[in-house]
Specification:
about 170 residues, single chain, mainly alpha
């Protein structure tokens, strides 16, 4: 019985798994060749380690893409879907993320210096150790961590000494 369930799970994963996040191979090739792929489907693509300076990825679907250690210096990712994307240690200096979807996006140790993040919901992204020096971002509206409020010495409802969840993960800036 256990083998039958396992076999069905493997079969369904093989059939439906790639369809969930499958980058268009022509779009990946286009990005690598001309450094632009506006509105392309790059979901689930492995773009790790690429150097994409001034890349145009406006309106691109990068959901679940691996951009670990990728350089996107001065690139345009306006309105891009970066949900569940891995941008760990990516170099994103001066890039435009205006109105980008960043749910569960991993920016751990990423360089976002001078990046434009207006309208992007950075509160739902992982910014642990990210460098946001001179970035145009508003962290004031990020929610308070439930753990912070339960361990706080201040009475419930008093926000005077609480930091946002995102602010707690950021390094001190000089």
């Amino acid at each position: 019985m256990k083998f039958g369930v396992f076999a069905i799970a493997i079969t369904l994963g093989t059939i439906f798994g790639p369809a969930v996040q499958a980058a268009d191979p022509q779009h990946v090739a286009q990005l690598k060749q001309v450094n632009a792929c506006e509105g392309c489907d790059l979901s689930g693509a492995d773009l790790s380690g690429l150097i994409l300076i001034h890349a145009n990825l406006r309106n691109a679907n990068l959901q679940g893409a691996n951009l670990r250690n990728t350089s996107l210096l001065l690139s345009n990712l306006e309105n891009a879907n970066l949900e569940n994307a891995n941008l760990t240690a990516a170099y994103l200096y001066g890039s435009n993320f205006e109105n980008a979807k960043l749910t569960s996006t991993d920016f751990t140790q990423a360089v976002l210096r001078s990046a434009q993040l207006q309208g992007a919901d950075v509160c739902v992204a992982n910014l642990t150790g990210a460098d946001l020096t001179d970035a145009d971002v508003n962290l004031d509206d990020c929610p308070i961590s439930p753990a912070d409020s339960s361990t706080s010495d201040t009475p419930a409802g008093n926000d005077s000494n609480e930091e946002s969840l995102i602010k707690d993960t950021l390094p001190d800036t000089p």
